[in-house]
């Protein structure tokens, strides 16, 4: 594996990131489902939150990304919206590297808490968030033994909600 560089995302990364989602999730979803998943990343995320989003790349291009932002309504929260890691790099600490960099940058901006969500069926994401120190938020129901917020993303779209405290840096 060649050396990877971490950098701030740019609006110009949008097309590559969307294609990466379609390709990287193509092994576990139909092409239509992968395309639908990529629609969770409209261009506006990189137009307005590139400064808080991250890309990990090598000489061949983008290998991982994290789209996140700082809350506009308060000065203590941040949110990780979407993370992608090339399949051949999963399980090698790449996601941890992205999250750690996001935590550091959020703390430097005075943020004290990071939030994230996932589907209760995404057991890998649930395990990853727990391993990264996220706590499960209390929900209004339970799915697969997990507390979930029912209809969080619309009817039948239940989500596990996570919260993690981070240390503010001066």
Automatic annotation (TrEMBL):
PANTHER family: AMINOALKYLPHOSPHONATE N-ACETYLTRANSFERASE-RELATED-RELATED. InterPro entries: AcTrfase_GNAT_prd, Acyl_CoA_acyltransferase, Bact_Acetyltransf, GNAT_dom. It comes from Streptomyces iranensis. Coiled coil: none annotated. It comes from the Bacteria. This is Ribosomal protein S18 acetylase RimI-like enzyme. PROSITE patterns: GNAT. Keywords: Acyltransferase, Transferase. Residues 4-155 form the N-acetyltransferase domain.
